[in-house]
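Give me structure tokens for this 209-residue protein.
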Amino acid sequence: MHSHTMWSGDCTTTPDELAAGLQACAIDVVCITDHNATAGAFELQNDLPCRVVVGEEIRIGQGELIGLFLSERLPTGMSVIDTAKAIREQGGLVYVPHPFDPMRNCLAPSDIDRLVAAGLVDALEAYNAKTSLRSLQRQAADYAAANNLAAGAGSDAHVPDAFGAAYVEMADFVDAQSFLTSLRGGRIAGHHFDAARPWTPRIIPSIPD
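Here you go.
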């Protein structure tokens, strides 16, 4: 539910590497959530060995928010409330990534509370494979349960080997709403994976979205 490709500024995973990584971990569906970009997800929809959900990890003034099932890219720099509303206007799902992790660019707890109070959160990342402390994973899972939010999981993959480090086993779906229904009945699986990224001599082109 949370992954990156070379269309993210901090990731160099090429389409071929992505395809190999997904095939190796036997994932059926991948949510591509590049930083402030959707072009890669749209381009790769028919080129990977699994289904693709188009998403975006959007930089906002107060942290980051993920939109899933997007039809177009969302701009950066909007408020947290306006970003969530813009995701919903596309028929997308609002997903809060890596909450409560002080080492990440996450939303402040007060901003998460504001979103939840406004009914603008569909799911919260209860397991992020790059978050090393189990206490933070438990805090996220407990918050999702206490607020009746669907609990998601993601590898937050920035290298091919990270794909499949965290995922949700869930029933099949046909659209955003059936995805959310299936997610509520899903089972999170995963392990911590944040290995150092190997240096590779390559040039990743600047790709307009």
